[in-house]
Amino acid sequence: MNWQIEKGIRCDLACYAAKNLVGQRHPVRIFPKGNRQGDVPTKSLYSLLIRAPYGTRVIFQTATGTSWEKSPWRCIRLTEEHSLKSAGVGNPGIYIPDLDFLDGHGDKRTSVDTECSYSIANTLAEGKDWTFGRVGEIKGKVVRIRVEKDRQLARADLPDLDLMARDLYTRFIRRNPSSTEAAIDDIAAALQQVLVDRGQDDAMKRVRRLRAWAEEL
Question: Which of 24, 61, 149, 183 is most buried, by the most CB atoms less than 10 A from its CB?
Fold first, then answer.
């Protein structure tokens, strides 16, 4: 498999050689430095589980080169609305029980009774839904997988205070590169005060999200 991986993303893929997440399993771990552990053969990619931060997109291409969008392809985006939240501090996930058809993001089995295609897009730039692409035979045909940040989603899906926390952290670290814990402690205190004023009490949840995001930088 040919891979194109953008740095700064922690992603896990569990790829299966048959529909409905069964058959031989090929785990792939992607790390923030852009390196990868594991691989999946083209003929062994029929269904999969993706775990990655919100604002990540994974693109499955059946062709390479400048005209790849003229062949079947599919893009899957991790959004807060269309993903399964982790029970702990891990990344959210999406099940894809059949690469050729649309199912719910939490479905482990594809439905033959309600079989339908995902949203059609002629180009990557045209895509609007959580999953879209050029419809066609993709199972067992993928030759390139791209893992990258969807910059529009990366900010649009975050609440305002989460964005504020990330911006503050980035500014602090530029001035004090070795003081990551001090930065998080200071931002946690600021979040706590703002949330008290708003009548909210989810500061620790937001700080955990900030910490997980910072660890991926």
Answer: 61
